[in-house]
Design a protein that fits this description.
Number of helices: 16
CATH architecture of the largest domain: 3-Layer(bba) Sandwich
Helix content: 25-40%
Pfam families: FAD_binding_3 (PF01494)
Strand order of the largest sheet: 6-5-14-15-16-13-18-17
CATH superfamily of the largest domain: FAD/NAD(P)-binding domain
Structural class: alpha+beta
Number of strands: 20
Keywords: FAD, Flavoprotein, Monooxygenase, Oxidoreductase
GO molecular function, one term: monooxygenase activity
CATH topology of the largest domain: FAD/NAD(P)-binding domain
Radius of gyration: 22 Å
Strand content: 25-35%
Number of domains: 2
Shape: globular
Family: Belongs to the paxM FAD-dependent monooxygenase family.
Oligomer: single chain
Protein name: FAD-binding domain-containing protein
Largest sheet: 8 strands, mixed
Length: 443
């Protein structure tokens, strides 16, 4: 890499999965002046389980952080889709083929292990500097130099100037708002009408119930579905924790703290939402300690007209927040990061014009794919949440056809082999490398 290119000052707002991986991808490519601004005082690494899809693992392996994540992960051998009210199996999908087909098994792990390993990778790179307890907003110039305001929690605001600014500041992104305002566009955050409970039960909490212990000892993701609701669960952390995530109508949600869209939930309300699910589910949910019920408001926004303006680009949930029904939210942010590493390292010079072109190549490689998966996640959620009627009857016929022959479409698109091929078989870095010269030349 040219020495002038290495010296480009690149600032990243947000230290979530997208922001951390972007910093690491850029450092691995040889950039020497990378700054990450994060509002929180530290990364904290809270959260629940997360699915570690092959398209994510492939990138993290190339960045040198996958081995630590893989060590604690659980390989899923299959997924079972079941009727929530009866525990009747609607379909069982083998996941054993995933490793031989895509080079990585379909694994699940703890979100803290994923984020912690990426952060540890960043800490090994002297090029990356973190600015914690610091908010960043007020983008005033987008090119040729980008300028914005950084505000430490216990200090005076100061102006930052950089060559490239990447907004990885989540669904409530201030960078997105400021970018769209500059081009006279908007994309307001919208309620999806859904909320989620995220629960982690320990082996000790489950060990006195043989039926529940069988779940945590399995290599399976199980999804129990019902009208407007579902539960998906799987073991993580070397099978010491059973991760449970739900989706249901956003009717019980209290006024959420503005920064997080999370609130303490009510255990009786949670139990009432799933009161018609089978007795095993009732026992499982009853194990959740009082006061430890957390509910997330699931929010999205409409597709943006652009992710790029000047030398500023958006990353992850700031430009394509998705419902969790395909388990691709973090994976798509990580794909963004990987492609940014490729396109910025391929810059022919350090002019603002070239930077803008490279960022627009990033958008070309990523936007259509990410937005397709966002739409597919939403439609898959609707299929899982059907109530009684003709549509549910048709869906269940599809399940039955798959169950009998082991082939055909699966209404739960996360478990459908054709959709898995779209998700897992795509190598975003390879696409970016192969198309960069042609796409850059068109601009």
């Amino acid at each position: 890499m040219d020495s002038n290119l290495k010296k480009l000052k690149i600032c990243i707002i947000g230290a979530g999965m997208g922001g951390l991986t972007t910093a690491l991808a850029l450092a691995k490519r040889g950039f020497e002046d990378i700054h990450v601004f994060e509002f929180a005082k530290d990364l904290g690494f809270v959260g629940a389980g997360i699915q570690l899809a092959p398209n994510m693992a492939r990138i993290l392996d190339r960045l040198g952080v996958w081995a630590d994540i893989e060590r604690e992960a659980v390989i899923l051998k299959d997924t079972s889709i079941r009727q929530g009210s009866t525990d009747e199996e609607l379909a069982n999908v083998d996941l054993g083929y995933v490793h031989s087909t895509y080079g990585y098994a379909h694994m699940v792990g703890h979100r803290s292990s994923l984020a912690g390993s990426i952060y540890a990778g960043c800490q090994r790179e002297s090029a990356i500097k973190f600015h914690f307890s610091t908010s960043a907003s007020g983008v005033e110039t987008f090119a040729p130099k980008v300028s914005f305001v950084a505000t430490p929690k216990d200090g005076e605001p100061y102006r930052v100037e950089c060559d490239v600014l990447l907004g990885a500041d989540g669904v409530k992104s201030k960078t997105r708002v400021e970018l769209l305002k500059t081009i006279n566009a908007t994309a307001e955050v919208e309620d999806s009408g859904q909320a989620a409970y995220r629960i982690m039960l320990t082996r000790e909490e489950m060990q006195h119930d043989p039926e529940l212990l069988k779940l945590i000892d399995s290599d399976r993701a199980t999804r129990w579905i019902g009208e407007k609701r579902h539960i998906i669960a799987y073991p993580v952390a070397s099978k010491t924790i059973y991760n449970i995530s739900t989706a249901q109508p956003d009717t019980n949600f209290a006024a959420a703290p503005s920064a997080t869209y999370t609130t303490k939930g009510s255990k009786p309300e949670m139990l009432s939402v799933y009161a018609d699910f089978c007795p095993m589910i009732q026992r499982m949910l009853n194990l959740v300690p009082e006061g430890e019920v957390c509910e997330w408001k699931l929010r999205v926004h409409q597709p943006l007209p652009t992710w790029v303006h000047g030398s500023v680009a958006l990353v992850g949930d700031s430009c394509h927040p998705t419902l969790p029904h395909l388990a691709q939210g973090a994976a798509q942010a990580i794909e963004d990061a990987a492609v940014l590493g490729v396109v910025l390292a391929r810059l022919p010079d350090t002019t603002a014009e070239s930077i803008n072109k490279a960022l627009r190549v990033y958008e070309t490689v990523r936007k259509e794919r990410a937005e397709m998966l966002v739409a597919l996640a939403a439609s898959s959620g609707k299929a899982m949440h059907l109530g009684e009627g003709a549509a549910k009857e048709e869906r269940d016929k599809q399940f039955a056809k798959f169950r009998e022959g082991g082939k055909g479409d699966v209404p739960d698109k996360w478990a459908d082999a054709n959709v898995q091929k779209q998700m897992y078989g795509h190598d975003c870095m390879e696409v970016a490398e192969e198309t960069f010269a042609e796409e850059f030349g068109k601009l």
